[in-house]
Structures are given as C-alpha cells and as structure tokens.
C-alpha cells in the first residue's frame, strides 16, 4: 500500500500541474491566490512531501451487488425502528451488528441526547441531497428530453400526457387501485380542500404545521 500511495500521489500531482499549465483549473474563492505560479508550486511541493493514504478494495461483483450496496445508503435511515429495543429513563436501548466478528448482534444503551447526536451525524447538511439526477433525468429541460425520447422510440403520443395526471389517477390506471374512496364508508370520495404551508418553528427545532393542523382532506 505504501508503493501504491506514492504512485497515486505523484500521478495526482502531475495531473494537477498539467491542468494548471493548460489553464483548466478554476481557482476562485479561497483558492484564488493559487493563480500565482509561485504559490501553486509551493502547494504542490507541500502535497508531494506528505505521506498519502490510499484506500483500495476489490471491484463489485456485478450490477446486483452495486444496487444492494447503494440501496443501503440511499433509501434507508441511520437506524430502523426494529433495532430500537426500548426507551426508558431517558436512555435509548438498541441493537448493533459487529461485522468484524461475523455479524454478531449486541445491545447498546445511550443517553437520549447522545443517541440523537449520533443519529444527526447521518443527516445531510442543508443544500445537500443523496441522489443527483443527470442526463435524461436531470431537471434542466427534462420535459423536452422526454418528448424527444418518445419520438425516437415511436411511442404512443398519448403517453405525452402522463405528466398531466395526478398520482392517484396514474396509480389507478396502471394498477387498478383507487386511493380516493373514503376509507371509512367506502362510498364517498376524498377531495383535497386546502393545503397548509409548513412554517419554521420559533424554537428553531424544525418545521411544524401552522395552527397545529395537517393538510385537510374530506369525504365528498
């Protein structure tokens, strides 16, 4: 790993210097001073004088392994409800898996404040997202790209109106499941009356619904 670290360091610094000479580096903000050649050369010398740590692992075994790996991070929270065993006396008791010893299950108990602190370490900062779409699914000109895809695939023009359907109508058309009947009487249909915009709680602890109520739907 030492040899790999040295090779990676040298290759990286060489590529960085090459991009600098070609004017391909956008140096702005805190890096604006590096536009001066002497400062940039000094930074490169400092980088090459350090011992780099390189992390390497075997490649994935296939598409299924990639989906399994990404799925654990993209669509799950830090801890599932099933792992929380109890909350008593201001302490949270939960299970954790020791992957270094064959995946053995153990129990741990933490103060509620410490449990919340560790949980919040997994919450992305404001402005960050877990999934960024690109290409055909990127936000810019998405509708125009989808229309062009339908043209190239010679799809039914009626599919172009899919975006105008509500999610209830789309679900009923595709699956036959209608979400609009009243869950109590089974006869009336749920009609959205109005939506209440969320407001920032004065305490700074998050979002609450204005007047303490949630969006209202009624049976018609």
Task: Summarize the structure in words.
The protein is an alpha+beta fold. It has helices at residues 2-21, 37-49, 63-74, 112-120, 142-152, 167-175; strands spanning 84-88, 91-98, 104-111, 190-194, 198-200, 207-209, 216-219. The strands form three sheets. A three-stranded antiparallel β-sheet has the order 1-2-3. A two-stranded antiparallel ribbon has the order 4-7. Strand 2 and strand 3 (104-111) form a beta hairpin. The longest helix is centred in the first third of the chain and has 20 residues, at 2-21. The model is unreliable at 203-220 (pLDDT under 50).
Essential attributes:
220 residues; alpha+beta; three-stranded antiparallel β-sheet; two-stranded antiparallel sheet; 7 strands; extended
Number of helices: 6
Beta fraction: 15-25%
Point out poorly predicted stretches.
Answer: 203-220
Q: Tell me, briefly, the overall form.
A: extended
Structural class: alpha+beta
| Average pLDDT score | 80
H/E topology pattern = HHHEEEHHHEEEE
What characterizes the major β-sheet? 3 strands, antiparallel
Sheet with the most strands: spatial strand order:
1-2-3
DSSP, total strands: 7
What is the rounded Rg? 27 Å
Distance between the termini: 69 Å
């Amino acid at each position: 790993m030492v040899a790999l670290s040295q090779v990676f360091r040298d290759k990286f610094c060489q590529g960085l210097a090459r991009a600098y000479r070609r004017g391909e580096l956008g140096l702005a903000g805190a890096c604006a001073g590096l536009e001066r050649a002497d400062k940039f050369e000094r930074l490169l010398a400092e980088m090459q004088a350090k011992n780099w740590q390189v992390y390497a692992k075997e490649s994935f075994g296939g598409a299924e392994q990639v989906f399994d790996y990404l799925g654990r991070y993209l669509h799950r929270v830090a801890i599932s409800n099933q792992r929380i065993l109890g909350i008593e006396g201001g302490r949270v008791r939960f299970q954790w898996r020791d992957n270094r010893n064959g995946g053995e299950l153990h129990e741990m108990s933490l103060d509620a404040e410490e449990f919340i602190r560790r949980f919040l370490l997994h919450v992305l900062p404001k402005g960050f997202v877990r999934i960024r779409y690109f290409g055909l699914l990127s936000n810019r000109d998405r509708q125009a790209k989808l229309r062009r895809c339908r043209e190239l695939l010679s799809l039914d023009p009626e599919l172009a109106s899919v975006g105008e359907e509500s999610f209830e109508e789309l679900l009923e058309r595709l699956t036959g499941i209608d979400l609009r009947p009243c869950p109590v009487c089974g006869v009336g249909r749920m009609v959205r009356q109005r939506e209440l915009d969320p407001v920032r709680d004065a305490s700074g602890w998050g979002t609450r619904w204005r007047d303490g109520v949630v969006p209202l739907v009624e049976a018609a």
